[in-house]
Amino acid sequence: MTGTTTTLATALAAGPVVLDGGLATLLEAHGSDLTSDLWSARLLRDDPDAIVAAHAEYYAAGAQVAITASYQASFEGLATLGLDRAAAAALMRSSVELARRAADTAPGSGPRWVAASVGPYGAVRADGSEYTGDYGRTVDQLRRWHRPRLAELIAAGPDVLALETIPGAIEAQALLAEIDGTGQAAWLSLTCAGTRTRAGEDAAEVFALAAGVDEIIAVGVNCTDSDDVDALVALAAQASGKPVVAYPNSGERWDAQARAWAGEPTFGVDHVSGWIAAGARLVGGCCRVGPEAIRRIAATVH
């Protein structure tokens, strides 16, 4: 049930909390067409019930936190559907309501939270640049770009913002500056290779940027090979002094040109105990990680 008085930050202090898996992964498995540049965000308008059903399936599998379908939503992107600014804003806010609906109706018990996804600037470009950070944008430019959709998602009343798949320090600085002082709980999650960000920086230095931002309740990684997560969890815990979030992808690689996944999966639920031992308190999966894996993660955690 939602409506619990326990905040997610309080729950993390008590022990590990289970995140969901890849939303797009499950929507595609159920037959949704996600070939547009808007990815799962298109379904906010075209098939909201499919989004509710996917969230509910993850909650039923043992996830305690659902990450909304707003990752790729932007005013520019939604304009390609013919939506004006007001309609686009309403659609972004609806992503939180859909996840709440799933939390209230899915089988199972216990507290459930909703995380409003804030994807990187590169995700909206739909050219794979979220995996390089090669935007050619300054901190101030990224702050101005993120600000209006952050305002809409905060207004929707999520329990937490998921500032996720952030490829480098410039975008992390922009988002942290925008969140600082808002009072809105958030986590910051980088995408990394080895112990470096996708933009090539020392991940520990970027994790440390969040140390003094009270709104950040967890720092860590997502959309990262699970083989790299043990080391990154330890670095995040030490550098930020905060609980750690870890939700890697399957280990396959996204080919933006072919719009397809390549390579072999490396994700192993057996890794989860190691992440928790290293300091992870929010654990789940990202791209290509589905409900069965989340069910096994929940069993490990509980």
UniProtKB/TrEMBL annotation:
One of its GO terms (molecular function) is S-adenosylmethionine-homocysteine S-methyltransferase activity. The keyword Magnesium does not apply. Its cofactor is Zn(2+). It is an enzyme of class 2 (transferase). The keyword rRNA processing does not apply. Residues 5-301 form the Hcy-binding domain. Zn(2+) binds at residues 223, 286-287. This is Homocysteine S-methyltransferase. The gene is mmuM.
